[in-house]
Protein 1
Amino acid sequence: MKFLRVIAVCLIASTLAGAEDAHPIGIEEGTKIVLERGDYLPRPLDDRTPLIVRLGSVEKSDGGFTYQFHFIGFEPGDHRLADYLMHPDGSPAAELGDRTFHVATILPPDHDGALTPYIPSAFPWFGGYRALLWLLGIVWILGWGAFLWFGRRRNAVAEHAPEAPAPTYAERLRPYVEAAAEGKLDSAGQAELERLMTAYWRDKLGLGDQRMADELASLREHPEAGSLLRSLERWLHRPGGASPAEIENLLAPYRESTTHAGKEVMV
Amino acid sequence: MIATKIHFVSAVRERVAEVVVGQDVVVERMMIALLTGGHLLLLGVPGTAKTLLVNTVAKAVDLKFGRVQFTIDMLPSDILGSELLDQASGQFRTHKGPVFTNLLLADEINRAAPKVQSALLEAMQERKVTIGNTSHPLPVPFLVIATQNPIEQAGTFELPEAQLDRFMLCHRIGYPTPDQEETVLRRQLKMGLKQVDGGAVPKSAFDMISDEPVCGLDDLVGAMRTVQDVHVSDVFMKHCVEMVRLTREHPAIELGCSPRAGLALVQAARARAFVMERDYVIPEDLFELAEDVVLHRIRLSYEALAEGRKPEQVLEEMLHQLG
């Protein structure tokens, strides 16, 4: 509503100014006026002047000299141009006659000068603006509370959830050993079986910090691991390989696994 | 079959042992390179018997041996050869360079300009050299053993990965053990003087190399043929493929191995199995050779280098995943 009032006042002001070539109070305006002489200067003014005139530029034109004036009016009415200009020697520019600046008020003539009172309009939703702000604040605080509560609960669940133990080498070996015993292990599976067997024994003997080639040499010197590795090499790498009976014997210890003290071990 | 051919390896090893103390692994790698026709890059500080070893092996197997000391002012024609105008006949005649040999020792290969390195590496790959408008096949077998000093890098041109890939093996030579070093000193004390034209000079280990070969080209070819018969199981090939795959997928590695690495692993493993008197390869061959086959073919990522990781550590990680 207030916005509409402001627009209306502006429209009225612009209508008045346009109709009578009037300029509104307190707003800087500009105008061009052609005068015969080109040496007019602005007169010095005091702080009670009803009009401030500033000379922007002077250019020579066909009918004389075109003056670009900027001015701000503080009181409505006609202000004579002659009162605000002078000759270079300080004498009044009386020859300018009745040329005037017309400054008009944008308020109606019968206005008493009272300020427009502020009347807040009623907020149409949720019982008013304050109530809405309270509601949004409560929702914001509750949202943070819920976020923290659910976050802590999820962490607590994650902390209490038992971690699935990484499969032991024995567990990883079993499907390959079973497939090998049944003669269903392809070359990729055989390669994985050999890698897991080697890793199993490296783990069992606590190796792991040396060069792989040195670790393999250590394994080969171990009575049990060395025998296994040589058997594996005969089976997987030697031309002709190994007979089913030899493979059965090789894998037998790895097929019989038990659970001991919660951890799967080979016997 | 292996047993009948293995005397070739033991004879060469015995001959090398007469001159060089220790360095058994280097000799083994040289034998692998000889038996597979692969090229070998030796990384080692000066004075670790690189040249002596190559010289001894070349004479032991009765191979034509050439040595080129690479320098910065060298031109490709210094290695490959050139066409010269014979003023007497008015005709161009081909002057073949030192690359026309069976065993070429390219000493300090990283000191030569890249165009010389490229010329040699092209010859290594194609086993032929074009001089003028004519292509000349290189002698068979043709093997390059190049050396690099890993310490001094000023005034050198580092071999790029694509060229390093041409070397089947890149072996890092270490210092001898204290016992071996003591043996070297004792041997030196017993060498005495060499008298030449009335003058004399202390003998060096090079003077101890016998000119009598312990085996000939036929023995080498026979041994090479036997290596080709060494059995490679499907399982071993799966291990090799897995090894190469790991280098390509490891987060610390920017550039993994090329397919050439897998080929080199299998070939080198075959030759090592032969040297170890087996007619089939086993995972031990892969683990022993991985460092020499893989390490010069991978490049660590910037992040891994910034963390202070070394290629050797990353390779060991991968090998531990493999076994």
Protein 2
Amino acid sequence: MLEVKDLHSFYGAAHVLHGASLQVAPGEVVALLGRNGMGKTTLIRSIMGLTPPTVKQGEVVWKGEAITRMKPHDIANKKIAIVPQGRRLFSSLTVTEHLTMFKSARATEGWTIDRIFSTFTRLGERRHHRGNQLSGGERGMLAVARALMQDPELILMDEPSEGLAPVMVQHLEGVIAELGRTGLGILLVEQNLYSALAVASRVYIMETGKVVHSATSEELAKDEGAVQRWLGVHG
Amino acid sequence: MSGLSRSKSPMGALVGVAVMAVGVIAPFFLSRYQIGLATQILIFGMLAMSIDILVGFTGRTSLGHGAIFGASTYVVLYCVTQAGLSPYLAVVLGIATATVLAAVFALLAVRTNGVYFLLLTLALGMIVWGICLRWTQVTGGENGLRGDIRPKALADYKDFYWFILALAALVTFGIRRFVQSPFGLTLRGIRDSDSRMRSLGYNVPLHLFIGFTMSGFFAGVAGAVYAFFNNFVSPSTVALTQSVESLLMAIIGGVGTLYGSFIGASALIALQNLVSSHTERWQSVLGITFTLIMIFAPEGIVGKFRALRAKYASKH
């Protein structure tokens, strides 16, 4: 269980998160929605211990243990993985090398290369291609696959569908929904309301550094007022 | 910078076997002087390859590896000539000293990069050089340490060459396995982007520390056997020139190629010896040659060859 309690984060003197709070239960897919600049990525970075920003108040608790201000590698060791915004792949490494960086290709426990290539068949076909030789969709898949190779219990996904063609977004939604069914917790940052509603069981909406609305996906889908007010989307 | 693909190429293996075969039979055709040069090339090839772990695979350029290499040479010569230890034990102590020295360098340097890393390793190397120059009771000062320390089993120059050839093959295999391991891939990730690796949850300073220390270990292996080859060490062995020349070997061969280090060492040592036997202005000739290599093959000789091969393959 991930609990974020009243988190205040700063970029220098700029106060960006103003007491953000949320929860992700084990095996739950939760979406974090909000317009640009509302603090979604800052919240993800704060949970992962990445600096900047600096967390000055509040707490991040993972499975009962406070992980606030821990180093990112210590947080990663606690089985929390991240799919960063923009994917952040390595141009000189092949698909296989991106994946075996976390775990030997001969590993048989948890997520293995074979399991990844059977889940993401396109990556298997492109296994010898380098990070800069992949299409946007393949890059998105590889970023998710790379996180899975850490055998996480929770993945923080920062706009994995950003810039993808609709068909690729649909494919990714299918993968995320499937991962959710395997018991993996996912906190999904999205700008695309319909993508989020398709895969998440619960949704948080952020506005100017705070979580201002929380609902199940079904509730939000019916609440046109909230959607229009917080996300500027007309149903 | 080229990476080393993990895929096994039958052609690559064939070339490796052919090179080894030529290396093994070479002493039957070469003069004693030429075998000496070949031995020197293998030793400095190992040193350049240890530098390539940092330059080619981690993106950190070290100017302190001459000091790490030379420290190992000093310890081996001191242990045998002054302390009366067995040469084999001396080699172990020499490599251990180089590894510890590299770990100390790494502790101080891992939080820097770019020109700061370069300058810090240069400064640390200069400290070692200063110690070797001034600590005359132990290092012999400017006179250095001298002695016929090579074990009897390797006394014959051909046997010694074969021993170094086998060691170079072992070191190459070890470094290749290291850079292709999951850990080696993280070093390449760090080379591409520190911040990217941090954001994925990697302890970048720890990985750099281990990478630097491993690199120092291999430099120590080269330094230890150099003591057997040269039977002499002086401050010039740990000087900045040593670091620069070894770095040049890695660059001329092609950083990130590993095997290029032996090509670079061959080019530098062969040119030094050939040109200097014909003209006193050999250093100018070397300078011009390396300038031309950097202009026409900035990726190094092996790097250029791979680029041309890839270009040819894409056309056919």
Protein 3
Amino acid sequence: MKITLVKKIMADGSPCKKCGDVLQKLEQNNQMQYIDEVLVADERDSNSDGMLLAAEHNVNRAPFFVVEEEGQPVKIHTVYFKFAKEVLAQKTSEKEELKEIMNDNPDLDFI
Amino acid sequence: MSNLLDTVDLDQQLQQQSPQEILQFAIEQHGNIAISFSGAEDVVLIDMAHKIDPDVEVFCLDTGRLHPETYRFIERVREHYGIYIDVRYPDGEAVRELVQEKGLFSFYQDNHQECCSIRKIAPLRAKLLEVDAWVTGQRRDQSPGTRAQIPVIQEDKVFARENDTLTKFNPLANWTSKQVWNYIRTYDVPYNELHDRGFVSIGCEPCTRPIGPGQHEREGRWWWEEATKKECGLHATNIEQ
């Protein structure tokens, strides 16, 4: 299995806060060992590795995880807690997972 | 990958279609599909879908904090169309914990996300685990951001079952509020009485207020929160050009 994490650099050159939060969670939970590659999606450079990967998989948010497994279709995860639960088989808090979903998907305000 | 490419291609095709044509496609393609109904002007989706399939499934998220007018409206819609509406509720224990810890109006102190995640998102997720596709009334003009990109069809990666796919349709994505209301008037569709009192976007009672002329409908929801929101989208810029 190969896991790639894509983090974002904003159009003004600043790092994405959410990406920082997710990286911190990965460190705290000793999960960085499972990440094979970290790519940067630089909004100022549409040819940056992360931007190209996002375009290839039609992902429109960051951070995100690309999970490649032999003989399986590539899986994309945009919710850290869902990724931790489904890919790393880590027990996660539903409360935290739901809060992350709500924070990252403002369109759900109109459901 | 092929599913993903299919969805992207389909979106380009469906962008040119009317909401009725998109709904027709969605219902024909997915036997196990449900329409999300918020008790507001997304009632037009029920009217359109009911003409295609009178047995179409509709669900509603009862957060426990809706206006009495909205509850009456949901019931009116149920009777008017003779449909079954699957009303979903939040987990009582999760609500009790939130209220015990932070009170009944915690969203005024911090923000609405925690309350919404318990009262709305958890039951939404539970419902979506049961279906293969869902339909929302989301529109581009509901977001004041200029970058609002709501596809007509998309792969819902957030709520999909593990190792499975979930398709989300937004047939009204390209319609404006005015078009929605033209439809409601033209076809005499029942609507929430709160709309006659200046409410445009309708959600929970403590988080919804009427707005005045020229105000964006978003200003009628969570008005105490800062306008600045987290920006998690990926936006390629053209500064190199």
Protein 4
Amino acid sequence: MHSIGDAFGLALSLVLSGDRDLLQIVLLSLRVSLTATAVACLLGLPVGALVAIARFRGRSVVLIVMNALMGLPPVVVGLLVYLQLSRAGPLGFLGLLYTPTAMIVAQTLLITPIVAALSRQVLEDLHTEYAEQFRSLCLSRVQAVQALLWDGRYALLTVGLAGFGRAVAEVGAVIIVGGNIDHLTRVMTTAIALETSKGDLALALALGLILLFIALGVNAAVQSVRLTAARHAHV
Amino acid sequence: MFHKTLSATAIAVTLAGAALAQDQSIIVQSTTSTANSGLYDYLLPLFQKESGIQVNVVAVGTGQAIANARNCDGDLLLVHAKPDEEAFVADGFGTERTDLMYNDFVIVGPAGDPAGIKGMQDVQGALTKIADGKAMFASRGDDSGTYKKEMQLWEEASVDPKAASGTWYRETGSGMGATLNAGIGMGAYVLTDRATWISFENKQDYAIDVEGDTDMFNQYGVIPINPEKCPSVKVEAAQTFADWLLSDAGQTAIADYKIDGQQLFFPNAPKE
Amino acid sequence: MSDVAAFTARAAAAPAQMAPLLPLRVRGLTLLRGATTVLDGLDLDLGRTGCTVVMGANGAGKTLLLKLLHGLIQPTAGQIDWQGQDTAAVTRRQALVFQTPVLLRRSAAGNLDFVLKARGKDRGRTATLLDHVGLAHKAQQPARLLSGGEAQRLALARALAIDPEVLFLDEPTASLDPASVLTIERIVQAARDRGVRIVFVTHDTGQARRLADDVVFLHGGRVAEHAAAADFFPAPRHPAARNYIDGKIVI
């Protein structure tokens, strides 16, 4: 049996030796998940802002759906995207299955509801505070949304980081639509799944430790954003 | 001067051709057992060096590989479940099925050997002893070639393990490696292909108990996917890879792949 | 000739050329909040210039009256007639300073920049406005780290930034130190002297005496008394107003 200590040593030596395969896997993980996070923010923030500010019939239903979608299981998202992108599926002609793009699509779908729901909460709180002042100043709706997005930027950044954390750690969606192809679509989580299935627990654990460090880094970033915001009285 | 220009042109053309080939890539739908054994990591660089074609392997269970291929999500199928492969070709999804290589299945078990099958060669007899002794047995329980083979062997032993599902008979519903991990975790016997077993790194106190029965022969076949059903298929590149696997060069390469000095796969493509 | 043209263009752009908002005429203003009648058929007339101080006990509806006049909420019944102008246009030509200032999460200067830009005003005025309210040295400070008095002065500068014709102030000095109170009163008086119509809600009779040209006393959802400051303070006619003023003086 391999000990955590062995795995830690292996992880360290892999990182320090600058193993090219490992580097490629880590970089692809970051590329896929960061891109998915960026796209999810582009889609999710306006939706969150709209639902935060607008009052319309069925809004409470939209809220329930948004919050429920936050818990979408990655494998379900992966399966849905597979069915669309498969050659036999409606979008098969695009030839995107088993590419990083397919993985980005799946992770984007996975975390867009998270970004939308969390940013809705942030922006609604801010809007409650600002709404009357904004009406007194006769701001247009666009100006009001711009001000909310800008003033909520630190809180929204932590929303984005939460989405990224979820994306980079999931395995269910990317393994279905990416196929875990070596040097093409293999990311950290699918590599961990593969090494575990090969019984190479030390290597799997080493990759897991690297993932853990990235998660720690993300949380450290969240924390420092919060501190910066507090320092500038953005709380 | 003239010669210089000509040779420069020739070099340019050659480079362009190489670059073109470099851009080519195909997707092979294959099984976890071949991928986990490391065979592709050995074969693919050899083939790519020779042809310039990038081969991307999606490693899933045989059943899922065939299902994916039926959705046209691949260019070549390389699996081990002969009846299903023949159905795949008969339904028009594959152009032609060719025997490629074989390995064999073994039953591995814990050092304690609770069913007392160590050293047996008769696989059906061993399975009967496991069932009679209600010794733990971990099965893939998925749609893989290994699972189909296991079901066939139980049937030949006149045992219905599914009746004991959840008791001594445990279906993991996972790949070969994951099933080995699970089986070793609960002290269960596991039917595995030899290639996965040799390259498996979490053996603990497990060893091969049953091997050598010709009924545990595991034949792999290769099938290019039919462009008539799947227009997106990269016919030429896929055929090039299939031809190479079946050629003397490919067959030799398969035989040359060894872990700890043990040969994992035995090429048996029909001679021209 | 060109000088005349330039003058005409400038004059056309000036608010003075728009139809005036005042005098204001309010009739039968009624506001229900749930089962409570806050305002009950209130009548009110406000003249063209000066500073009107609105007084009344807690819950008399002073804040809600300001919000109604400013167009932030709609009355249950009654008319608010700003010389026949429609509500959206009226709100745009007025400003309201809330009891608790709502400042954006940016610097003091950033707060003014934002409003000037949003309202299509000259952003070069930020420095002048900050200087006017004595905050020039705090320009780059985060607005939400300002003291209570500084924050309210910034809110006042923001209100003045949009060149309001009417400026509503809702107890702007309620919890401030005396120095800040006087600074704000000075700024408000300067605005009145420039011709800005002031409507100022306060509980502080001393402040009311310092600022008011006329006093509106709310009681029972109506205007109980509306009189010139010189007449009101020596001898309030309405019993409730008399008690209110007496009570304050006794304390």
